Amino acid sequence: MERTEEVEAPAAAAELFAVVEDLGRYSEWLDIVVRATPADALPRDEGPAWSVELRGRIGPLARSKRLRMVRTVHDPDARVVFERREPGERSHSPWTLTALVEPRPDGSRLTMSLHYGGALWGPMLERLLADEVARARPRLVALLQS
Predict the structure, then answer these.
(1) Is the pLDDT of residue 62 over 80?
(2) Whole-angstrom Cα distance, residue 90 to residue 108?
(3) CA-based Rg of the chain, rounded to a whole angstrom?
(4) pTM for the model
(5) H or E stretch at 16
(6) For 80-125, what is each residue's pLDDT tens digit?
(7) What are phi and psi of 106, to 5 degrees?
(8) Distance CA 132, CA 126 (A)
């Protein structure tokens, strides 16, 4: 599954980037992220890691997922990439979240892309993300204005 969304924000690119470069802040504006707490670094990690708990509900169906995400790319005020990196030798479905922040004359633009390579969440994840993005856009803008 691949999904890309954009939001225009009435804030400088540096302000917007400060919110999206730290997974620990995502629960402030994205309900699907229940919590994201710092995780211990592993020798293969390129950057800081977070233990992320995701939860979504559509009607009577609910799913939860825990992921260990590592910031693998960090271009200050411009681009950040988080990738799933679990400890151990077991293979896990890939999750990659990319946030690109661009300055605009009246603020900035955030383009977020999510790649999920598994089958467990499937169509439920697509629907859940569509609903969540609609609710998250105004929350992110409100967070930036506070």
Answers:
(1) no
(2) 40
(3) 15
(4) 0.91
(5) helix 13-20
(6) 999 999 998 888 889 999 999 999 999 999 999 988 887 666 666 6
(7) -110, 20
(8) 10
